[in-house]
Design goal:
Elements lengths: L1 H6 L3 H14 L4 H13 L3 H13 L5 H19 L4 H14 L4 H13 L3 H14 L3 H8 L7 H13 L5 H13 L3 H8 L8 H14 L3 H13 L5 E4 L2 E3 L16 E3 L21 E3 L2 E3 L70
Antiparallel strand pairs: 1-2, 1-3, 4-5
Helix pairs in contact: 2-3, 3-4, 4-5, 5-6, 6-7, 7-8, 7-9, 8-9, 10-11, 11-12, 11-13, 12-13, 13-14
């Protein structure tokens, strides 16, 4: 009945069947997963948390996956509470960040809410822990905004501390360069981007354009870097099931799958760009008897046949080519020389015959 309801696009009936089956048998995989998915689609985060707990009791989810999915649902709940109940949102976001420190949206939200509530040390601890595991622009921005009203130089000092926690990661270089640019420390900004300018992404090239414009007012160099940014490789983004979003979402807008978004380069950019294929030179015509076959042009019909190129004779030891005529593979070559005269042929336009050299037949 559940499958038939889905085929008829009767989602309300399908949900009722799934919920009833999941309550009757918590270990029934299709029912447990379907009930969780329906609650996530509806934005019922409390109900989704209950469904996830039931799936765990039924043995449908591993412990590590349970912690990750619970953190995702708690983050979604905190986002929904942020505008109405800041205190509850702060507590829920902290729980999510503790369950999964690598979940960037949870750490960034918890850090901002804690900083706004005056709990700066706890916010620093959560953001730094998440940065060590998953460096991300949202973490860097939340870390830079820990102190409201801080000057650009104070933000730069704070960003130097964060960048040292993941020195080899590109996000550290980008975050430090941006903070240095805002503080007008152009030499530090250039030095931070130096490892990335050989093959810059769009963000790195855009930062270089801003540096050129702010430091020297060189609009020409700035335009050059912006032109490079247009053709540069894409930066990582939030992607899920082929869709790219500016901000993280707990559920895929395409399939409704929970925890579908990943921070990575979009799939289209991963296609390798091979070398340009040059057009082949036209094939020379080959004479076969009285028929000349030429290579088909680009506008010729698809059924046209293309003659094979003439085979070249092997060079002689002295480097000269043999002067013997070259024949296509289908040509048997010149007829062997006979010791006799050729057979008599009738003259053109007459029936007169030359005398035959064969002796006359007797009787």
């Amino acid at each position: 009945m559940f499958v038939e309801a889905q085929r008829r696009n009767e989602l309300a009936a399908a949900r009722q069947y799934a919920e009833a089956a999941a309550k009757a048998s918590p270990s029934l995989a299709w029912a447990g997963h379907a009930a969780l998915e329906f609650r996530c689609r509806d934005g019922d985060w409390l109900g989704a948390l209950e469904a996830l707990d039931r799936n765990r009791r039924g043995g449908l989810v591993r412990d590590d996956a349970f912690r990750r999915q619970r953190a995702v649902l708690l983050t979604a709940q905190a986002l929904s509470l942020k505008g109405s109940d800041t205190r509850a949102a702060r507590e829920v976001a902290q729980e999510a960040a503790k369950l999964c420190p690598g979940l960037v949206p949870a750490a960034a939200l918890a850090g901002r809410l804690l900083a706004e509530g005056g709990e700066r040390r706890r916010a620093v601890r959560i953001l730094e822990t998440s940065w060590r595991e998953s460096p991300h622009p949202d973490i860097a921005n939340a870390y830079a905004d820990l102190v409201p009203g801080a000057s650009a130089r104070e933000r730069l000092v704070r960003m130097r501390v964060l960048a040292r926690l993941a020195q080899s990661h590109p996000e550290s270089a980008l975050a430090l360069a941006n903070a240095a640019l805002e503080a007008h420390e152009f030499a530090e900004a250039r030095a931070s981007l130096a490892p990335l300018v050989a093959a810059p992404t769009r963000r790195a090239a855009s930062l270089m354009a801003r540096i050129e414009a702010a430091e020297h007012g060189d609009t020409g160099r700035a335009r050059e870097w912006m032109a490079r940014a247009v053709h540069a490789a894409l930066d990582p983004a939030w992607t899920a099931d082929g869709a790219v979003a500016e901000t993280w979402m707990p559920v895929s807008p395409v399939t409704g799958r929970l925890d579908a978004f990943e921070w990575r380069v979009p799939v289209a950019e991963l296609t390798p760009r091979g070398p340009l294929i040059e057009e082949a030179a036209p094939i020379k015509p080959v004479i076969l008897g009285a028929v000349v076959a030429t290579a088909a042009s680009d506008s010729a019909p698809a059924t046209a046949l293309t003659a094979a190129p003439e085979p070249q004779p092997a060079p002689r030891p002295n480097g000269l080519l043999d002067e013997a005529p070259v024949h296509p593979p289908d040509d048997p070559g010149p007829a062997p020389e006979h010791a006799f005269d050729p057979l008599p042929q009738p003259a053109s336009g007459t029936a007169a015959m030359r005398p035959s050299w064969f002796p006359p037949r007797l009787g």
